């Protein structure tokens, strides 16, 4: 099941997340050195924020990978959804032109549904 995380897309994501995680720690360290040199409250806050961003990003990425591992791959296959169809009723009591047009539309709909059903077999 873990082999799904070894596709080229996921390997690229692994590398990108690792690089960004390391970058946030380096940026946090850089801000810490600025703050220790008298940079002020802004540098102290950024020194804490950058590593926090890295941890949050890593946490979201781990959640995304776990979702991928627990996902059913058959859910992505088109055509497995059940579609209920009820033939529309045609009101022939009103305008005869409207009734004829509705009958024509119903016939086109039946043909389209029939072609889709035959095409999938």
TrEMBL record:
Keyword DNA-binding applies: yes
Domain of life: Bacteria
MF terms in GO: DNA binding
TM ranges: 12-32, 44-62
Record keywords, A-Z: DNA-binding, Membrane, Transmembrane, Transmembrane helix
Record's protein name: DNA-binding transcriptional regulator of glucitol operon
